[in-house]
Write a sequence for this structure.
């Protein structure tokens, strides 16, 4: 099969990742939305970079739009990325609710819940949703039990009007939590052909036939950022879709493009790998090869080997 000659868009590489504003994962959204009830604890888990946090944000926005002025949704978002100290989680939880951590002493779960209770009751007519994003480091550091105790305590907080609080947490590591009010939503790799095509079309010009590109993305990428980068760099300035064979070649040779696909996670790479993993990478890659690339690209190569 002849290769379709496709070129990268004339625009320069943009290292800033974009938030995709296109409708995908409708089934997962509807499933999650049905679980966001007062008193529920919802774990949203799945592989890294598949859009778990963004999906939660989009669902809550949809709920607010549907409720309109009849019932306001108060969401409190706690960024837990790379946090291993449980006391830091307590502090960030208080900050998300506008409470100065220094005003809550001692820094215990009980004192934190007492302070939170006063905030929730001051807005008792609202639906309260507490969101802990990217919690995997807590489990990997051995703070899982304390964190789940906090989550359960928040879910059992009684707020007059709309009853209990809804708690959602996202992680690429599955937390072992069970209970009548505990729900699990798994977000897997993005492999639905309709979702992939929707992303490709949203971030590129009109291309009549995207079937080969969709199949390639399903087989080799499977996460939104990678699909978006392919669309922006190789479809935006071409009226024809490149063949699957051509796309495989660029994925193997265009390391700058691969670097951009993973740029949001490069800072996390070394927290995923232990000394033995790094030694393995060092022995497998000749020094002359590693010196060819920037530090960022070397980190990207390590990420791909993981």
């Amino acid at each position: 099969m002849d290769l379709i000659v496709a070129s990268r868009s004339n625009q320069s590489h943009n290292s800033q990742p974009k938030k995709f504003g296109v409708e995908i994962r409708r089934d997962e959204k509807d499933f999650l939305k049905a679980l966001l009830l007062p008193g529920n604890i919802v774990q949203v888990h799945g592989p890294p970079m598949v859009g778990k946090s963004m999906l939660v944000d989009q669902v809550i926005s949809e709920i607010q739009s549907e409720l309109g002025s009849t019932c306001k949704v108060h969401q409190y978002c706690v960024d837990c990325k790379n946090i291993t100290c449980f006391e830091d989680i307590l502090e960030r939880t208080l900050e998300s609710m506008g409470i100065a951590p220094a005003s809550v002493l001692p820094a215990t779960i009980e004192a934190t819940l007492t302070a939170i209770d006063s905030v929730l009751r001051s807005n008792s007519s609202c639906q309260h949703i507490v969101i802990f994003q990217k919690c995997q480091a807590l489990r990997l550091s051995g703070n899982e039990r304390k964190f789940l105790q906090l989550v359960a305590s928040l879910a059992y907080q009684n707020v007059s009007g709309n009853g209990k609080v809804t708690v959602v947490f996202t992680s690429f590591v599955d937390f072992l939590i069970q209970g009548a009010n505990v729900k699990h939503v798994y977000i897997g790799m993005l492999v639905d052909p309709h979702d992939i095509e929707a992303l490709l079309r949203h971030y590129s010009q009109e291309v009549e036939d995207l079937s080969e590109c969709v199949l390639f993305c399903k087989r080799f990428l499977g996460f939104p950022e990678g699909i978006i980068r392919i669309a922006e760099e190789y479809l935006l300035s071409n009226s024809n879709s490149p063949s699957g064979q051509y796309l495989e070649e660029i994925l193997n040779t265009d390391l700058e493009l691969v670097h951009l696909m993973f740029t949001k996670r490069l800072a996390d790479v070394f927290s995923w790998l232990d000394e033995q993993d790094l030694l393995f990478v060092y022995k497998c890659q000749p020094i002359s090869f590693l010196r060819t690339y920037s530090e960022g690209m070397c980190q990207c190569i390590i990420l791909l080997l993981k």
Remarks:
- Residues 52-67 form the longest helix (16 residues).
- Residues 1-17, 286-293 have pLDDT under 50 and may be disordered.
- The first strand starts at residue 41 and ends at 45.
- The radius of gyration is 22 Å.
